[in-house]
UniProtKB/TrEMBL annotation:
Similarity section: Belongs to the transferase hexapeptide repeat family.
Span of domain PglD N-terminal: 3-58
CDD domains per UniProt: LbH_AT_putative (cd03360)
Matching Gene3D superfamilies: 3.40.50.20, Hexapeptide repeat proteins
UniProt-recorded name of the protein: Acetyltransferase
InterPro entries: AcTrfase_PglD-like (IPR020019), PglD_N (IPR041561), Trans_hexapeptide_repeat (IPR050179), Trimer_LpxA-like_sf (IPR011004)
Length: 218
């Protein structure tokens, strides 16, 4: 059995844990060693904190080839602030686990990168490309031909039309919907319930139906 460490904690870390537990119910795949977390010391949902998030701790586990990592510190609040932390850890890409919930329906003509998490009841159409460290939350629909670049984030129930592109780090909020062929700019944030009809500029903050820009992501 492979071993896994979740980098993060309450929030997205526990969501990833939940998916791992569901994978294990169907097919015992992962032994969860625990979390790396800078703030917590007590166990999270029954799993210990095995260290702080730093290179020294990580290197100790990299020496054990059966240990994999999942980096969960990517969200609308954390955004690319935490990206440098991920890179500082220098974890080889093949040591990041890709987690796919057993209820997700994924076309065999889809490509999925490393360190990505696909949550319950997600549907991913044919000829899609899902990059590295992408998070796709429960019940989201990814239309055929869509391309989700590295670090992009799709919150629950979002609906991505065919051939849509989420550029690096683009965030799509809960229940948001996009017209086909649009692109969401680098590290842009589109709020809950937005209806995106046109391309979203890089770093734009968008809300509403039709989606309009209300600001810029710092
Ligand atoms: C878009 C978003 C990032 C804006 O957050 P923010 O920068 O803190 O913006 P504010 O809350 O200050 O709101 C600014 C204005 O936009 C409006 N607004 C914010 N989010 C909105 C949304 N999703 N739809 C419509 N209007 C919205 C606010 O009412 C406010 O309007 P006002 O100036 O007339 O009062 C945030 O509201 C959002 O939707 N985040 C996504 C959350 C999500 O998907 N979470 C996943 C589940 S956990």
């Amino acid at each position: 059995m492979k071993k896994i460490i979740i980098i993060g904690g309450y929030g997205n870390g526990t969501v990833a844990l939940s998916t791992i537990e569901d994978i294990n119910k169907r097919d015992k795949t992962w032994e969860v060693l625990g979390f790396l977390n800078d703030n917590e010391t007590e166990p999270i949902n029954g799993y210990p904190i095995v260290g702080k998030i730093n290179k020294t701790v990580v290197q100790k586990y990299i020496e054990q080839p059966e240990v994999y990592f999942f980096y969960s510190l990517i969200s609308v609040k954390l955004n690319f602030k935490f990206l440098s932390k991920l890179h500082e850890l220098e974890i080889p890409k093949e040591r990041f686990a890709t987690l796919v919930h057993p209820t997700a329906v994924i076309s065999k003509f889809s490509k999925i990168g490393y360190g990505t998490c696909i949550q319950p009841f997600v549907s991913i159409g044919p000829n899609t490309e899902i990059g590295n460290h992408v998070q796709i939350f429960a019940q989201s629909l990814i239309g055929h031909g869509a391309k989700l670049n590295d670090y992009s984030y799709v919150a629950n129930n979002a609906c991505i039309g065919a051939d849509v592109v989420l550029k690096e780090g683009a965030y799509l909020g809960t229940n948001a919907t996009t017209l086909e062929f649009v692109s969401l700019g680098k590290w842009s944030v589109t709020g809950i319930g937005a209806v995106v009809l046109k391309d979203v500029p890089d770093y734009a903050k968008m809300v509403g139906n039709p989606a309009r820009q209300i600001g810029t992501v710092n």
